[in-house]
Amino acid sequence: MDTYDILLYGSYLLIAIGAFVSIVMPLIKSLDNPKSLLKTVVGIVGILVLFFIAYSVSSSEVLPKFEAEPFNLTPAGSQLVGGMLITTYILAIMALAGIVVTELNKAIK
Fold it and tell me: What is the phi/psi pair of residue 8, to 5°?
């Protein structure tokens, strides 16, 4: 095993530990205040509903060049990727609109 492999596996382990801690610690902290947990659940459900709408709207069409090697893209995979892209676009537009509204509101006051 090469040094690069050992360091790569070490970084995988550190990423897994970081992801676990970043998910579990806020959950433990939110047990003190259940209303904050409810807000988190509402946010997650909202994003899931947005993804379901985007997934329903996206096309399952696959171009012939993407059906073959090395992509092997299926219609279900194409629709999943399309749903994720549309969800990302909508969330980015919402974030930018929120920034603009906040700055305008601060400029007016």
Answer: -65, -45
From the CB of residue 75, how many other CB atoms can be counted at a distance below 10 Å? Answer: 12
With 90 as the cut, is the pLDDT of residue 5 above it?
no
> Which pLDDT belongs to residue 105?
95
Asked if residue 58 lies in contact with residue 79, where contact means CB atoms within 8 angstroms, the answer is yes
70 upstream amide cis, omega within 30 of 0? yes
Judged by DSSP in three states, 72 sits in coil
Name the one residue in this structure whose structure tokens are 């219609």.
75
Element housing 107 (H / E): helix 75-108
**Mean pLDDT score of the chain, rounded to an integer?**
91
pTM score of the predicted model:
0.71
DSSP per-residue letters across 2-34: -HHHHHHHHHHHHHHHHHHHHHHHHHHHHTS-H
Residue 109: its H or E element: none
